[in-house]
Amino acid sequence: MTNTVLVVAETAGDSLAASTLVTLTAARELGGAIDVLVAGAQTGSAAESLASMADIRCVRVAEAPHLAGALAEDLAAVVAAHVGEYSHVLAPATTFGKNLLPRVAALADIQMVSDVISIRDAETFVHPIYAGNANETLRVLEPHKLLTIRPTAFAKEAVAGGEARVEPVEAGKPQGRSREIDLQLDESDRPQLESAGVVVSGGRAFGSPEKFRLLEELAAGLNAAVGASRAAVDAGYAPNDCQVGQTGKVVAPELYIAVGISGAIQHLAGMTGSKVIVAINKDPDAPIFGVADYGLVGDLFEILPELRDKIRVLRGEPDSQLAEA
Amino acid sequence: MKVLVGVKRVIDYNVNIRVRADGSGVETENVRMSANPFDEIALEEAVRMKEAGICSELIAVTVGDEASQEVLRSALAMGADRAIRIHAEASPQPLNVAALLAALAREEAVDLVLLGKQAIDDDANQTGQMTAALLGWPQGTFASELTIEDGRARVAREIDGGQQTVELELPAVITADLRLNEPRFVKLPAMMKAKKRPIEERTPEALGVDMRPRVERVEVSEPVPREAGVRVADVDELLHKLRNEAGVI
Ligand SMILES: Cc1cc2nc3c(=O)[nH]c(=O)nc-3n(C[C@H](O)[C@H](O)[C@H](O)COP(=O)(O)OP(=O)(O)OC[C@H]3O[C@@H](n4cnc5c(N)ncnc54)[C@H](O)[C@@H]3O)c2cc1C
Ligand SMILES: Cc1cc2nc3c(=O)[nH]c(=O)nc-3n(C[C@H](O)[C@H](O)[C@H](O)COP(=O)(O)OP(=O)(O)OC[C@H]3O[C@@H](n4cnc5c(N)ncnc54)[C@H](O)[C@@H]3O)c2cc1C
What's this model's pTM, rounded to 2 decimal places? Predict the structure, then answer.
């Protein structure tokens, strides 16, 4: 049986979110025909860039003003109407996909699988459980497989060279019982945490939002995104969506620098997929050293200024090739 | 307003998880269990609504075996008015749990279902959204702030890249994120009193829910552990290694 896969695209403003590219990679792994559904108030440019990507058969567009806030109540109805046409429906395991796909699944009476990190075959999938302390392999007995895809587990590549047809689909009517009344997006010019090549994360040890700026200065020097432990977020040193871990974001940059973070399993769940891990901590027995490629024991308030200054010097060198996001 | 809070019994977050050698699951024998931390947050929120006079009746529900009654006892001690256990074998799947919760929400005519955003064992993050879909109610997932006014819930949601605020008409389903509140400690006398309170029992059959599994577990395996690397003496050595050995800066 050949697969027919529907990818639910996530958009950022009017353009395509990086998580969509990752989800497409997972769809290619499944093989078969791939369609993409883009829903929103303004889908033109996202649909256009999708249509030019390789391996896509059809870009299906649901455009209507009421789809602007990406409310699950409205989007789920649009997606659920098409589940029956596909062997697989995929969405990224971001807050967008996590909010949406379970609602679609229940409307279609299907048990879905969250956070897929590996595809064994068309019905067998691996996902992490217990904060990544175990991997569970599941065989899905449902006629249609609904999956959210963990963004760090598949490649983020835009494969060009396609000419997919673009067709409109029914955008439905507003459900009318929920509405977006405010949206606050971080406007920082730092790279995004999920896709940055370098992430520097800080923990409780900083002690105050003012001192947390030391970390931000280091991040600036490395063109890195800023992450945080739950303790640092709870204490107000960093915004909510900076939290890395089991119940925050999962990141897998080329370089992850953990500063003043003890390394609780809930934190490790979000960063052990990183290529190179550096830990800076004054406690030589901190669990974070157990996963670090390079550990530096010492006081962060002495180490960080030195590190920041020396990186500035390194960056200033003409042959310097800093990892870019 | 009547509020239903879901509480799941899970392995305590402090326990080191061990995968069984035969790959059938993780070790649960003689392991400390407790209420899912997100559910304690959901419960705390509901108790505060009671204290503020917004909630008239607070019902805690768990889906599980007899041992899961223990999380209902602490829910009663925390301030729940009633506690209901719906009988289920170990690990019911989210869609089945959602169907049970939806059936109970209808039967009890509640105005609000408050759940955790995810259970820390299976990390599925599905049940709340599914419950909302089955009821045809609006959903406010990953809530970090919640106010109820004039039959509406205003929910600040933690989303990637920032925060979204939505307004939902009640009845609705809301799932709690970490920063919604800090749950109170349950005092011993309250716990002792809760031991004597009744726990109501329901069955999936009585609620008309088919518990057939839709997914089967093939195996549970241990992820490849990450090896610890080396210690460096100072910043210079660190930068040298990052540049020349790892090649990342
Ligand atoms: C349900 C649940 C979900 C959770 N989800 C997450 C999650 O997603 N992400 C997450 O991160 N946590 C999560 N946690 C919390 C987690 O268990 C830890 O409490 C948290 O990660 C600790 O943060 P920390 O390492 O910053 O603080 P601490 O554990 O207090 O560690 C601070 C570290 O800083 C070091 N230090 C202190 N001063 C200095 C100094 N001057 N120089 C250098 N080092 C110093 C100390 O040696 C210590 O190791 C969760 C917990 C629960 C119960
Ligand atoms: C054979 C087998 C197959 C499985 N298949 C799947 C699968 O297909 N997909 C998958 O993701 N997991 C699967 N699992 C894992 C497991 O079934 C899920 O345990 C679990 O029912 C729901 O996931 P969760 O608790 O992480 O739900 P979440 O959606 O993370 O839970 C969110 C919230 O819902 C409420 N809630 C959840 N469960 C209960 C409960 N029992 N009582 C009261 N409230 C509750 C709580 O408020 C909780 O905070 C499988 C396990 C086995 C053994």
Answer: 0.90
